[in-house]
Structures are given as C-alpha cells and as structure tokens.
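Sample pair:
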Amino acid sequence: MLRRTFLIAAIAALTGCASMADKLQGSLAPPLGQAYAIVSLVGKAFEPDRAVVGLQIRDAAGREAAADVASLNTDTVFGEEGMSPVEGKLMLLPLPPGDYRLANVWGHWAEDGAWGPYLQMKQFKQNAPFHLDAGETVYLGEVKLEMSFLPEVKYGNEARRDFGHMRRVWKVKDLSQVKIRPLAPASGAQ
C-alpha cells in the first residue's frame, strides 16, 4: 500500500512538472500585456508529510491578485544538479502590470503533544511590496515558513537553486531576461 501511495504521488509530481514545462514551451516571456512573478514558497516542519504552506498576493487596491499553496509532502524545489532539494514549490504567478504586496503567509502543520499530535494553523500578515511592468519576468526570491518552536516567516534569495529548478524542471534554458528583485518587508512590517 505504501509503495502504491508513493507511486501515485510520484506520478502526480511528475505530471505537474511536465505540465509547467509544456505550458512554458521553453520561455518565460509572459503573455502580451502581462508580467510573471516567480516566488519560491518553502517550509520547514518537524513532520513535513503533514504540513502545508500558502501565500496571498494583493494588488494596490487591496484585492487578492494571486494565491497558491505548497504541500511539504508532495511539492519540491529541485535546484541545480547535485543540490539538495527543498520541500516547497517554485510558483509562477501571471499578473497584470502594477503594484503588489505579499500580504499573507500561512501554514497548517501537525506537532506532537503530550496526548498525541495536534494541528497548528497560523497566519502571518506580511507587507512585502513589489512592482511588475508589462512584459517582464521577476524573481521575487524565497519565502520560507519555519514551523518549529517559534514559527516565523523569513525572506531570502535562492536564485541559484530556483534558476536551476527552472532549467531542469520547467525546461527553460535562457533565464537572462529574468530580473532578480527579492521580496523584503516594508519598514515597520512583521
């Protein structure tokens, strides 16, 4: 049964990877009048097979513009050949040009307690602004939710790993047009 479950999960993961590569056809050029935001959403949990992380992007008017989730059980960012993979998802978010902000990061995970496991659910309000111009593709870096004793959101630049994933999994060879502008909380945020 465990082998069958693993096989189904592996097929689902490979299908998701293949469809992204098929969708992009080797290019990260966004559709006319649009832009692409790329963000790596990863997490670290004691029991990753029972953990999910998500994020929400809002536009300048405060409306939800994009949202996505990553299962630490099934989603993986592979990086360059020889790099250790991380649990999470490299996300490609098509958006119209404009001003945005990462507004929320949330996580659901299980922790062991004195009377067995219990579910933790936490939302972390954020204020990490970014701007997209029409026709551009911007790498926003890594958003990492640490789900441990003191859960927290961290920002980073994992361009080497994430560009390796784009080359190997998304099958995009030329990344020279991708602009690197990692997210950072606005002054006074968090």
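The helical segments are 2-24, 159-168.
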